[in-house]
Amino acid sequence: KAGVTQTPRYLIKTRGQQVTLSCSPISGHRSVSWYQQTPGQGLQFLFEYFSETQRNKGNFPGRFSGRQFSNSRSEMNVSTLELGDSALYLCASSLYLVSPLSEQYFGPGTRLTVT
Amino acid sequence: GDSVTQMEGPVTLSEEAFLTINCTYTATGYPSLFWYVQYPGEGLQLLLKATKADDKGSNKGFEATYRKETTSFHLEKGSVQVSDSAVYFCALSDHGNTGKLIFGQGTTLQVKP
Q: What percent of chain B has a predicted confidence (pLDDT) above 70?
């Protein structure tokens, strides 16, 4: 079974631009969560989607948004990029609406660099 | 709010040495606890988990016991290998219907031959 895939793997953008990152969950998984990983702040939760609905949102500005499609694929968008948005963005999928008993599987991440 | 604190790294050990990475947590409810591992250039992999007090999670020679009285979930391995070199994250999630994981800062482990 294929794992969680994220595209693109690497991205370089300029301040002020916007970016869209994509995540394809493991086949059959219906829940997708996004995390931002930076050296200073560590791993921080962005959002969680289940059945095309956002179920939970982390403490990030409105420039960060996401969505989930009917095939469970998810995208996140960051508008008006700032230098501080440079990070590794990780996507995780799980079979059900996530509970502690439903394991999350992480993708390899998208490395975003903002210059 | 809920939080996780890990011992600062990097931790450098010789092959076959004993490993302990300390993790303590603060949570209002009864969280589940996890250890994830991240190898260079990769995403996170679940190493082990425990969902209630006194549970012991184990995998690939690693162990951790959920200690409610000390709010701890320390990771241990009796004999580390060079291939164990990675970043280790302790995390918690509450028992609500949410996928939100709260992670510690991560501890880098370097094992030398």
A: 95
